[in-house]
Specification:
By secondary structure, the chain is an all-alpha fold. The protein is built from eight helices and two strands; from the N terminus they run ααααββαααα. It folds into two domains: 108 residues, Rna Polymerase Sigma Factor, Chain: A (Orthogonal Bundle), CATH 1.10.1740; 68 residues, Winged helix-like DNA-binding domain superfamily/Winged helix DNA-binding domain (Arc Repressor Mutant, subunit A). A hairpin with a 7-residue loop joins strand 1 and strand 2.
Length: 190
């Protein structure tokens, strides 16, 4: 019996070859994983974020359907592309939110009875995207590793497979990129 990842790869290859029914069989196999990725992204967003997990997955599906001409390699490649799409969707959403007429950049506070209000820690996706673009200008591989690991939720081994390098290289460059991004996003204070 074929493994689920093997089934996904076979369906991706069939879809790339023009078999539209392959997409119908592929969606149920990847749906749970895409929801997990979307949930992982959204948990980094501030409280009160209006984009929901299902909406993010649906938007990614719409963009994936437009990417039907992609020459899919395997399951990891599919999820790497999906991660990139979700990142783009969230960055676009964050930019639109910051440009709102009222309160786009306002700090959101969560008030809970008998607790002091505290700002909710969140990743500024737009700032992270800008930092990643800067990183990509001089180290495109490190930027791609961050994208796959942070946005895609890929493991070290899956990232190594997609990138075609060793797990040790991924671990080393992931650690270096995280430190660099922290410094970049904190104005060079790290």
């Amino acid at each position: 019996m074929p493994q689920p990842s093997q089934n996904v790869t076979e369906l991706l290859l069939a879809w790339s070859g023009g078999d539209q029914t392959a997409l119908d069989r592929l969606v149920p196999l990847v749906s749970a994983e895409l929801h997990r990725l979307a949930h992982r992204y959204l948990r980094h967003e501030p409280a009160g974020h209006t984009l929901q997990t299902t909406a993010l997955v649906n938007e990614a599906y719409l963009r994936l359907i437009d990417a039907s001409q992609v020459a899919w390699h395997d399951r990891a490649h599919f999820f790497a592309v999906s991660a990139n799409l979700m990142r783009r969707i969230l960055v676009d959403f964050a930019r639109r939110r910051h440009y709102q007429k009222r309160g786009g950049g306002a700090l959101t506070l969560r008030l809970v009875e008998d607790e002091t209000p505290a700002p909710q820690p969140a990743v500024d996706v737009a700032a992270l995207d800008e930092a990643l673009q800067t990183l990509a200008a001089f180290d495109s591989r490190a930027a791609r590793i961050v994208e796959l690991r942070f946005f895609g939720g890929l493991t070290v081994e899956e990232t190594a497979s997609v990138m075609g390098v060793s797990s040790r290289t991924i671990k080393r460059e992931w650690a270096t990129a995280k430190v660099w991004l922290l410094g970049e996003m904190s104005g060079g204070a790290a």
